[in-house]
Amino acid sequence: MISRNKSEQLFEKAKKLFPGGVNSPVRAFKSVDGAPLFISKGDGCHIWDEDGNKFVDFCCSWGPLILGHNATPVRESITEALQNGTSFGAPTVLENELGQLIIDNNPFVDKIRFVSSGTEAVMSGIRLARGYTNKNKVIKFEGCYHGHVDSMLVKAGSGLVTFGTSSSAGVPESFSQETIVLPLNDEAAVLDCIAEHGHDIACIIIEPIPANNGLLLQKKTYLEFLRKVCTENNILLFFDEVISGFRVAFAGAAEMYGIKPDIVTYGKIIGGGLPVGAYGASDELMACISPMGDVYQAGTLSGNPVAMSAGIAQISACLEDGFYADQEARTQFFVDRINTYANEKGYAFEMVTIGSIFWLTFGEHDAIRKADEINADSMVDFKRMYAELLDSGIYIGPSGYEVGFISKAHTTEVLAEVSDRFCAVLDRLFQ
Ligand SMILES: Cc1ncc(COP(=O)(O)O)c(C=O)c1O
Fold first, then answer.
1. Whole-prediction pTM value?
2. What share of the chain in percent tops pLDDT 70?
């Protein structure tokens, strides 16, 4: 067992300072055993904790670090930007540069607006949808996460209740009445809902690659169906690409599937590890945003120059020839080695993957496309596996509902070696 003495002490101290000892809940290791690891540094595909343990990191800060930790171009770009100060609250050339890089290489947005997190991007995008359509209601899907926006902290109502109920204390039921929660991969549910409420639905929001509650890969035909019903019913199609944007392709799932959303949100990778989010749409829609239009949205640190410089360096690297093909090939190599091994041994374990994202699944199952198709008991297996993975020097997000990420710094050599370690963990769990 690895020593976690220092992490444990730091966590005790943190509990006196922050609710549950953390500044974002999933970090608290509540789904797995022990104190969260306090990380002291990262380099390439590795991180080290305060006890000096070294791990191959597949969490990658929950997705942003597609080049790995401490990537040279990002570090150098930040260092250069820092020489000129950290924030002005006035436009800078760096915002233009990052904006141009995105718009030149993304056929789905004419204009974007930078904000400081994925949550803020979604909140603003929903306001835009409502402001543009003059309609109130939003359809979201069970199993998709869109940040901690009040109206998105809603789960399906029970039985025949169409409207959602709040999934967090502090969100008035009246807010959740404006959100309709439907199951994924269910065309009839969408059609029925539109038949009843279509006149007041501003947008359908979806993670086109749902990756916050397992990896609930949707069929392309289902996403095309959503595009079609939205167009036919004057509803905006909103792709939340905070994870998938710049991850599965430069222009995200929209590019991968060839489907144009009306509004799209980005986060994570766009900021190179610093806090940046963005929402984008056509010129016509974006003309509604203040100061051009009457949908208000603002931010003291929006377009922060240091954050912009990190984003410029990171997404420039993503634009290099073959970047995404290479990411996917290395991920496939890693996943294939583990899945083949598990299959040969008859272990009830499989990694599901798309692009450079993977998810660990346990037990026998068909393709899992809906939140309620995940076997909750499999989380017990995950918890056991998690302890073994940590002991083997492998770090992933501390919850079986979270996905793992592969960065450019995860070379084929590293992945070959780590997959052997992973298979040894499978032996210990299943034999
Ligand atoms: C799809 C999606 N949307 C929105 C968010 C919220 O982003 P942030 O945590 O930057 O507020 C997340 C965060 O994981 C996300 O995965």
1. 0.98
2. 99
**How much distance in Å is there from the Cα of 347 to the middle of ligand 1?**
33
Spatial distance between the Cα atoms of 124 and 115, rounded to a whole number of angstroms: 9
Residues 153 and 48: their CA atoms lie apart, in Å, by: 34
Alpha-carbon distance 327 to 322, whole Å? Answer: 9
What confidence tens digit (pLDDT) does each residue in 14-33 have? Answer: 999 999 999 999 999 999 99
Q: How confident is the model at residue 176 (pLDDT cuts 50, 70, 90)?
A: confident
Cβ of residue 118 lying under 6 Å from some atom of ligand 1 = yes
Angle of CA points 274, 317, 66, to nearest 5°: 50
Beta-strand relationship, 54-57 and 46-49? antiparallel
Task: For residue 32, give both structure tokens.
Answer: 């797995």
| Residue 161 predicted with pLDDT over 60 | no
Domains of the chain (ranges; CATH) run: 5-70+323-430 (3.90.1150.10), 72-318 (3.40.640.10)
3-state secondary structure 135-168: CCEEEEECCCCCCCCHHHCEECCCCCCCECEECC
Of 396, 429, 399, give the one whose Cα is nearest residue 33: 399
Mean pLDDT of 261-282: 98
288 CB within 6 A, ligand 1? no
Would the CB of 229 count as within 6 Å of ligand 1? no
Contact 280, 247 (CB under 8 A): no
Catalytic residue check, 145: yes
* The pLDDT of residue 303: 98
Catalytic: 240?
A: yes
The active-site residue out of 268, 279, 341, 347 is 268
Q: Rounded mean pLDDT of 295-317?
A: 98
Instruction: Give the distance from CA 339 to its chain's centroid.
Output: 24
Q: How far is the CA of 118 from the centre of ligand 1 (A)?
A: 5
Both tokens assigned to 139: 């359809």
Question: How many residues are recorded in the chain?
Answer: 431
Let me know: does 389 contact 381? Beta carbons within 8 Å.
no
When pLDDT is cut at 50, 70 and 90, the band that residue 250 belongs to is: very high
